[in-house]
Design goal:
single chain; mainly alpha; Cytochrome Bc1 Complex, Chain D, domain 2; 3 domains; two-stranded antiparallel ribbon
């Protein structure tokens, strides 16, 4: 076949485009792979942010990479770390005598305390001792762990230096092994969410019906796959999530578990208010909370 000059130019242009596109694609792939390798070498997760009602971040931070569970050593210390992990994930089995409801630690501290924005344990050993306005004094890490047992788990405190207490702290320390002592720990806790209007519980009920009942049940009392959100087997009124602001932030950043972040600020706020409008266990020592009179406006008691 004989090509004219114009046809030959067209063939050359097409060939050039094919070659150019191929080179560009290979370059993009190389850059992407290098980016992944660099991030892996530095050992940092992408910086997370949690949008507030005004569009500004409520909490952000760069958290060091989390060690793999497979890297727990085969030593007596490793056994203690593994026990700590099991206490967090299988609390009902490993700490049954200290739990008074149907929850486990990982119901609030997602992915066994390894998920940022969901009560991660990474860096927690460096955050204590810490002043807590709720009790009006500086508390130790042991005291903070027992607050979870007495409030969120509606149970009783672990004995000091018990195998359970030592194991949970060993697990937290192991998770935090790559955290510099000077880190600002800005990724810890639950970012608060504040709204300028009163919550709409009816809208919250609609959100709950459409987005939450599949896991938590239509009555909110939990199922085989998700914990109870209210009722006698849920967290008590002195738990952090009994405050609408904290519950809304947790819901906004983490729920529904299969599609975290799909709810708007308003939806998260309203469904948190609906959830916390139901009855839940009391806390016998609530009269001693906020002794200096700085109780937050959304405290349920």
């Amino acid at each position: 076949m004989v090509h004219t000059r114009d046809q030959s130019h067209q063939v050359l242009r097409k060939s050039w485009h094919v070659i150019t596109n191929h080179v560009i694609q290979r370059t993009r792939t190389f850059i992407c792979c290098m980016g992944i390798l660099v991030c892996g070498a530095v050992g940092l997760w992408p910086e997370p942010t949690y949008s507030g009602t005004d569009g500004t971040p409520l909490s952000s931070g760069v958290m060091p990479a989390i060690p793999s569970l497979d890297s727990i050593p085969s030593t007596s210390e490793g056994d203690r770390i593994r026990l700590g992990y099991n206490l967090v994930v299988n609390t009902q089995t490993y700490a049954k005598a200290f739990v008074g409801n149907a929850l486990t630690c990982t119901n609030c501290h997602l992915d066994a305390g390894r998920k940022v924005g969901a009560g991660t344990y990474v860096g927690v050993p460096y955050a204590y001792p810490q002043y807590k306005a709720r009790v009006g004094k500086e508390i130790s890490l042991e005291e903070r762990i027992n607050e979870c047992f007495e409030r969120s788990l509606n149970g009783k405190a672990l004995p000091p230096h018990s195998p359970e207490m030592d194991a949970i702290q060993a697990y937290m320390s192991w998770l935090s092994q790559d955290v510099p002592p000077s880190a600002n720990l800005s990724w810890l806790g639950f970012p608060l969410m504040n709204m300028t209007r009163k919550p709409d519980r009816q809208n919250g009920q609609r959100v709950f019906t459409g987005s939450c009942t599949g896991c938590h049940g239509s009555d909110g009392h939990g199922t085989m796959v998700a914990p109870p959100l209210w009722g006698p087997q849920s967290f008590n009124i002195a738990s952090g999530l009994a405050r609408v602001s904290k519950a809304a932030a947790f819901i906004k950043g983490n729920m529904p578990l299969s599609q975290p972040g799909v709810l708007s600020d308003v939806e998260a706020y309203d469904v948190a208010a609906f959830m916390n409008s139901h009855s839940r266990p009391d806390y016998a020592l609530k009269a001693f909370d906020w002794p200096k009179g700085d109780k937050p406006v959304d405290s349920p008691y």
